[in-house]
Design goal:
single chain; 366 residues; alpha/beta
Length: 366
């Protein structure tokens, strides 16, 4: 039976929703099924059914969780067979770029009672607009949190010695990465999120980290002073050594900061730890790299009060964002209920069986 790994491929961020569904697989090498339909119409259920059918034929299955409703699926990836299936509706809307040559569309429209849904249009539109308003408000608090954390990181960076961080990363690579010293072909990066800001709090996918990195090292960095540079250099050196690097981005800084680095071939991981997530990482790491070793301790002491204020203020903004996202999730469940009343789930199940058969046929074809 397949090893099931769970990630996020989207983030509720200070910039709004950020999608990394470009990571589903490369056109020309992969095939991807795009599922279209309304909320509550069975997209996640369909993908879960396909996933269960594929598991006996796979070494690994990657289930992509929904940041809006973490109990639901946004996508499933089958790396061994270069196949993927994804919810192609907003906020991670996907349209075919190479219809048939890469994507296939799975439409749930035939299972939807459009006349009934039109009759419920006032409630549907009202709920959709309210959900959008709540998510927009949460985005504002996440923006404030990001600004505060960015200020905190600048305090830490001003005390850090970049040369020492880079030199240390190179020593770690020489010790841990086989064949380090001359570039090797085959290095491959996968971008994922191992955590997400949701209406249920900041969720960290601990089981995935434990499965891929039984040798996990904490990078303790309460200032944001060293972890990002250290993990960036280690990622680059791992790719040079021909390794697969699972680069887990920060949901608050999805374009500029690496939170965690997993190297599955080595069973090794580097996990950023600070005051906000120390409890989530408890018992997961075997040893720690302390960012303070790369910093001017005197400068950090001088800025301790300011750093404490910034952390506390950022935590307050995060709490407000989570509260609003929780309200948005509750509204979305009501919206799903409206759509669910107009869906023929027997028809959805039949569409799921046809989709499942298509993927299994691809497995048999090789």
């Amino acid at each position: 039976m397949a090893k099931v790994l769970r990630y996020f491929l989207g983030a509720n961020s200070p910039r709004g929703y950020v999608s990394r569904f470009d990571q589903l697989g490369e056109p020309g090498e992969w095939r991807c099924w795009l599922v279209k339909g309304g909320p509550g119409c069975g997209k996640s259920t369909l993908m879960a059914q396909v996933s269960r059918a594929m598991e006996p034929h796979c070494d690994t299955v990657e289930e992509i969780l929904c940041t809006g409703s973490p109990h639901s699926l946004d996508a499933v990836i089958f790396p061994q067979h270069r196949l993927a299936i994804a919810d192609a509706t907003p906020p991670h809307a996907l349209e075919p770029r190479y219809p048939g040559a890469y994507e296939r569309v799975v439409s749930l429209w035939p299972a939807m009672d459009r006349d009934m849904l039109y009759g419920a249009r006032k409630e549907i539109i009202s709920l959709a607009q309210e959900e959008k308003r709540l998510r927009k408000s949460a985005e504002g608090y996440l923006y404030a949190q990001g600004a505060l954390l960015e200020d905190l990181a600048s305090v830490g960076a001003s005390a850090a010695d970049r040369g020492r961080i880079t030199a240390y990363a190179r020593r770690v690579a020489l010790r841990e990465f086989p064949g380090r010293g001359s570039p090797r072909p085959g290095g491959r990066e996968q971008v994922r999120f191992l955590s997400a800001v949701t209406g249920r709090g900041v969720l960290f996918l601990r089981d995935t980290a434990a499965a891929l990195a039984p040798r996990a090292i904490a990078v303790e960095d309460n200032w944001g002073a060293a972890s990002n540079l250290l993990l960036t250099v280690l990622r680059d050196l791992a790719l040079e050594a021909g390794l697969t690097a699972v680069t887990c981005r920060s949901p608050i800084f999805p374009f500029t900061k690496i939170d965690h680095l997993l190297l599955p071939q080595l069973g090794l991981g580097f996990l950023t730890q600070d005051k906000s997530n120390a409890r989530q990482l408890e018992g997961l790491t075997q040893r720690a790299i302390h960012a303070a070793r790369f910093c001017d301790a005197g400068l950090l002491r001088e800025r301790k009060a300011r750093s404490g204020f910034l952390r506390k203020a950022a935590a307050g903004m995060a709490e407000q964002a989570v509260e609003l996202l929780g309200q948005a999730e509750a509204v979305h469940r009501q919206l799903e209920g409206c759509y669910g009343d107009g869906v023929d789930f027997a028809a959805v199940s039949a569409i799921a069986r046809r989709t499942e058969a298509e993927l299994l046929a691809c497995v048999r074809e090789g």
